[in-house]
Amino acid sequence: MRAVALVGAALLLLATSGTAHAYPKPAALKGNVAAHDPSMIRSSSGYSVFSTHNSIEIRRSTDRVGFTRTGAALPSKPSWHFWYNVDGDAWAPDVSYHGGRYLLYYSVSSFGSNNSAIGLAVSRTAEPGTWVDQGIVYTSSTWDNYNAIDPSLLVDASGRWWLSFGSFWSGIHMIRIDPVTGKQSRTDTARRHLALRPEGTHAVEAPHIVRHGAYYYMFVSFDRCCARAESTYRIMVGRSTDPTGPYTDRAGVPMLNGGGTQILGTHGNIIGPGGQSVMRDGAEDVLVYHYYDGAAGGREALGLNRLGWDSQGWPYVR
Question: What family is reported (predicted)?
């Protein structure tokens, strides 16, 4: 038994150290899994994955293994989308359930531009054809030093609502959300700064914050996305006792100074994992992300792994 414990401890050390060969493979999935920037929820009827492009793609599964494309969240593109994207397409959805309705935050932009907007749609069932767009939540313009993309909603331990977002330029930011409207609070309009990487490096983007124990954990993606087999995306994490920060990594480096502890990177045919979110599924925390499959010409694919938490409270991929 002691030998088994020592082997388990060694594997945990490798998994939390960023050593590429130690990372486990994602779960074996079937069906339509070519999803990018996935966000997943579970309801009484199964699992739904929402992803970038084609008016927010929706996939369904009854078992978290086989997935079928069922439609789009916003097939009739709202007219305001075209101010931020010539095709009116939407990116990087974040879906959650609160107060009897599903909330879908998403971004509309063009690659490499910070003329961007975050929108909100709501539904009672989360099914295609039931989403009602609520319009713009927050914007950035070409003269701003931040980017209003990759939104993610957090409800903290005190019941306050927050939306984190961001990418290139000045990194990750956060605003306060009114739970009634789902839009920015009118009484707290401050924009908090959560993470930044040194000038000249690649992006920090796709924030997703969850609470575990006494801490809030912010998962982000570092480096280059969306280049298929050339992608260098990797998933990083930092934590804070306050949802608004400051967030630091395992070594104590502030995420506003480029900090972040790597929990998943390229390994084998799994290239550039990122665009992540975390779903609570019963007693499990599941890391939901995309990667580029080196065994399939660099095609994007949905990745699922369980998360574990070590004795110091840091997450690792299982």
Answer: Belongs to the glycosyl hydrolase 43 family.
Per the annotation, binding residues are 37, 112, 147-150, 167-169
Tell me the three-class secondary structure of 89-148, residue by residue: CCEEEEEEEECCEEEEEEEECCCCCCCEEEEEEEECCCCCCCCEEEEEEEEECCCCCCCC
Residue 213 is part of which domain span?
2-317
**Active-site annotation holds for 57:** no
The secondary structure of residue 237, as a DSSP letter, is E
pLDDT at 201: 67
Other Cβ atoms less than 10 A from the Cβ of 159: the count is 7
The binding site for substrate comprises 37, 112, 147-150, 167-169
Catalytic residue among 57, 94, 133, 205: 205
* Per-residue pLDDT at 15: 43
The residues pairing with 317 across neighbouring beta strands, listed in sequence order, are: 307
pTM of the model: 0.93
* Below-70 pLDDT ranges, the chain: 1-21, 200-202
The CATH code of the domain that includes 192 is 2.115.10.20
Q: How far apart are alpha carbons 46 and 314 in whole angstroms? A: 29
133 classed as catalytic: no
- Our count of domains for the chain comes to 1
